[in-house]
Design a protein that fits this description.
By secondary structure, the protein is an alpha/beta fold. It has 16 helices and twelve strands. It folds into two domains: 2-141 and 327-354, Rossmann fold (3-Layer(aba) Sandwich), CATH 3.40.50.2000; 156-325, Glycogen Phosphorylase B (Rossmann fold, 3-Layer(aba) Sandwich), CATH 3.40.50.2000. Helix content is 44%, strand content 13%. Mean pLDDT is 90; it is low at 351-357.
Length: 357
């Protein structure tokens, strides 16, 4: 039996559809939109202790590291798997001494630390010396039955009147960490001189008003469509009708949305950070750009759009890469093995057995 206990109520609303039937959803620990704010709440700590005492779980999986992970670590529950979400180990510790100490504390209390790329594994090792034998490192992966090259199409091009246009897609939440404004500024440069390209922005976030204002100010209403959040059932159809995936994020582990686009045979452009460098070989299966460099991102986008054959080959290569290294059914099976081992033995696994997949 699995229980899902979100830090904040907003997370529960976003994530319910991610689980199959059989999961028991518990009332969120707090009403704040910030899981970090909830994690600092004495009331949230007491409610978590109460839940753990009543449920008596065999295993606790908690994350991100600086919020859910730290809160779980405070309860001294065991066995505990603390899961990094990428930014919580790659970016959060740099923001303040307090956050750095919070991350280090959570990592020090974990029986196993779960990361999705080598960049996270290295960051964890630096933050928590001696933890290397407690780190499991593999990407969650992609549901290859849902995200695939031959997915049926919903007629997005026809609906938008874009049948004869090339389409760029991005699928990141509209937050500063994901370089939303860098993306839209670079895309504006491209669109001002390219009448044959259109853009789909999937996702939402605090920067949505800024994006809407930018689109209106630069007259991009007919060239850029912001479709908001879409379900996992619909997203692959958007990828299937797109020619290029672009992300300007300033911090990434193994980006799930990028892997999903790759699984649909889409060439990608991403920032030269974190896990992206472990998935993209420049000009072999995509392009890497410096963080925050609008001109470089615009130039890479033009280069990608100008070479149809290169994009086609890169898309095919991406399908092979994802099938080999990011198959959800296989990787999640490894995760379950890890959990069963921890519950049965009460001790960390042998790290080399869970090396990069």
């Amino acid at each position: 039996m699995v229980y899902f206990l979100p830090c904040e109520a907003n997370a529960a609303k976003r994530q319910l559809e991610a689980f199959n039937l059989g999961v028991h959803y518990l009332t969120a620990l707090g009403q704040s939109e910030s899981s970090f704010a909830v994690a600092k709440s004495t009331d949230a700590y007491e409610r978590l202790c109460f839940a753990l005492e009543n449920i008596k779980p065999d295993l606790v999986l908690a994350g991100p590291v600086h919020s859910g992970g730290a809160l779980a670590a405070l309860t001294e529950c065991s066995p505990l798997i603390v899961m990094s979400w990428g930014y919580d180990t790659l970016s959060i510790p740099c923001q303040s001494e307090y956050l750095d100490s919070l991350v280090r504390f959570a990592l020090s209390r974990a029986d196993i630390i779960l990361g999705d790329c080598r960049a996270v594994k290295d960051a964890v090792s630096n933050l928590c010396p001696g933890s290397r034998d407690r780190i499991a490192c593999f990407p969650w992966g992609v549901d290859l039955k849902t995200f695939r090259p031959d997915v049926a199409r919903l007629g997005v091009r026809r609906e938008f009147g874009w049948e004869n246009h090339r389409i760029i897609i991005t699928a990141r939440s509209m937050e500063p960490i994901h370089g939303t404004m860098t993306f839209i500024q670079a895309i504006n440069q491209v669109l001002q001189s390219d009448s044959n390209t259109r853009v789909i922005m999937v996702g939402d976030g605090t920067l949505r008003p800024c994006v809407d204002d930018f689109i209106a100010e630069h007259g991009l209403q007919e060239k850029v469509r912001v479709v908001g959040q879409v379900s996992e059932e619909i997203l692959p159809h958007y990828f299937a009708e797109s020619d290029l995936y672009v992300s300007a994020s300033s911090c990434d582990g193994s980006s799930v949305s990028m892997l999903e686009a790759m699984a649909c045979s889409v060439a990608v452009i991403a920032s030269n950070v974190g896990g992206n460098k472990e998935w993209i070989l420049p000009r072999q299966n995509g392009w890497l750009c410096p963080v925050g460099d609008v001109d470089a991102l615009a130039n890479a986008t033009r280069e990608a759009l100008d070479d149809d054959e290169a994009r086609r080959k890169m898309g095919q290569a991406n399908v092979r890469i994802v099938r080999k290294r990011a198959d959800w059914s296989r990787n999640f099976g490894r995760f379950l093995d890890l959990c069963e081992h921890l519950v049965a033995s009460g001790s960390p696994f042998n790290a080399p057995a869970y090396a990069w997949l």
